[in-house]
Amino acid sequence: MPKPERTAAILVAAGRGLRAGAGGPKQYRTIGGQTVIYRAMQAFSGHPDVFAVQPVVNPDDAALFQEATFGLRHRPPTPGGATRQASVHAGLEALAAEKPEIVLIHDAARPFVTAAVISRAIAAAGRTGAAIPVIPVTDTIKLTGDAGDVEATPERARLRIAQTPQAFRFDVILEAHRRAAREARSDFTDDAALAEWAGLTVATFEGDPANMKLTTPEDFVREEARLASQLGDIRTGTGYDVHAFGEGDHVMICGVRVPHSKGFLAHSDGDVGLHALVDAILGALADGDIGSHFPPSDAKWKGASSDQFLKYAVERVTARGGRIANLEVTMICERPKIGPLRDTMRTRIAEISGVHISRVAVKATTSERLGFTGREEGIAATASATIRLPWTDQGWDDKGRSA
C-alpha cells in the first residue's frame, strides 16, 4: 500500500527510571548537553512525515517536561499509567480523535533515534501493518534456570534485539490495547508482544545499534563519552559591540534590565553584551555576523529583545550537532556598575543559551576615564565563544545542514 499521509508518534515518558540511579527520572537528565527526552522527541517533531507527537508523562513531572522540551512541536501531554502498557494505551486514546493511519511508539529513554529509522518504521508499517526495528545479537545467549545453571543455548542466528519506534496501523493496535485492558492483561513488555497476543503478524526492519535505551548509570557515562569523542572540531569566535547613550531610565545588559540615568540609542534593545555574544557564536560557526541575520534595516527588529538573537545563535550550533563549551563577555564602562549584577547576568545568559552557569563568565572593566566609555557616552562589550562541532570536511548550508 502507498505510504499513509497521517502518521503520529507516541513518546512514552511516564517511567521513573530507578535503575539509572540518583538524579530524578532519566528522561529529564542531560546527555551531550541536552535532556534525554528533548533528543528523543526532536527526531519525531522535526520529521516531515510525522504530523503529531503525543507525549505520555507522569503528572508529577509536568514542570520538568515543559522545561525539558521547550521549543519542540508536540501535542499536550497526557498522563501515563502504572505500567508502560497502560501509558501507551493512554497515548493511543489521546490520539484517537486525530485519526492517524499509522502510529509510531517510542521510548523517551532512547535519545539517539534517527530520521532514517523513523522513515523505515513508517514505510514498514505501511507495507505490513505491524513492524519493529531490530538488530542482530552478536553475543552467544544462554537460557538459565532458577539456580543459575545453563539450560539451553538458543540459536544466535535467529535472535534479534527489539528496539523502538514500533510501528502499527493505528486502529489495529488501539483495538489490541483495548482488548488487553478488557481482559486484564497488563504483563506485556512491549507493543509487539501485545500485538502477537492479539493475533497480528509482526514484521521486522533494520534498526540502529546507536538507538540504545539508557537504563543504568553506566549507560549515561558511556554515551556521554561517545558523544564527546565525536565533537572534535573545537572552535572559538570573538565578538564586539558598542552602543551610545541616549534618553532613558535603564539599559539592557546581558539580558538584565539595569536602572540607569540614560538609555541606549539602538535599533533593538541595545544589549551590547548579548550582541557581542551572538557575534562570537556566529564567528565560531563562520556564519556571518548579527547584522547579516538581523539587519537593522528590517523594521521587525526595531525594539526587539536581544534574548531571541542569542537563542537563534545557539540553535545554529545545535542544528549542526554541536555544543557550546564556554561563553565569556567583558563589559567596558564606567557606569552602571556590573560587579553587583555579575551573577544575575551569568544566570540570565545561562537560561537563554541553555548551558550550565559554570560555562558562562561575565567580567567588567573601565577605560580609566579615557575615550567615549570613559566620558560615559556609551558602553562597549567584547565576547568570546568556544563551541564543539562534529568533525567534517564538508560545508554547511544556511539551515545548518551538511552541504
TrEMBL record:
Cross-referenced Pfam families: IspD, YgbB
Signal peptide: none
Reactions catalysed, as given in the entry: 2-C-methyl-D-erythritol 4-phosphate + CTP + H(+) = 4-CDP-2-C-methyl-D-erythritol + diphosphate; 4-CDP-2-C-methyl-D-erythritol 2-phosphate = 2-C-methyl-D-erythritol 2,4-cyclic diphosphate + CMP
Record-linked Gene3D superfamilies: 2-C-methyl-D-erythritol 2,4-cyclodiphosphate synthase, Spore Coat Polysaccharide Biosynthesis Protein SpsA, Chain A
Record's keyword terms, sorted: Isoprene biosynthesis, Lyase, Metal-binding, Multifunctional enzyme, Nucleotidyltransferase, Transferase
Binding locations of a divalent metal cation: 241, 243, 275
Site (described: Positions MEP for the nucleophilic attack): 156, 213
Ranges where the record places region 2-C-methyl-D-erythritol 2,4-cyclodiphosphate synthase: 235-403
Keyword Metal-binding: yes
Superkingdom of the source species: Bacteria
Function: Bifunctional enzyme that catalyzes the formation of 4-diphosphocytidyl-2-C-methyl-D-erythritol from CTP and 2-C-methyl-D-erythritol 4-phosphate (MEP) (IspD), and catalyzes the conversion of 4-diphosphocytidyl-2-C-methyl-D-erythritol 2-phosphate (CDP-ME2P) to 2-C-methyl-D-erythritol 2,4-cyclodiphosphate (ME-CPP) with a corresponding release of cytidine 5-monophosphate (CMP) (IspF).
Descriptive protein name: Bifunctional enzyme IspD/IspF
Lineage: Bacteria, Pseudomonadati, Pseudomonadota, Alphaproteobacteria, Hyphomicrobiales
Gene: ispDF
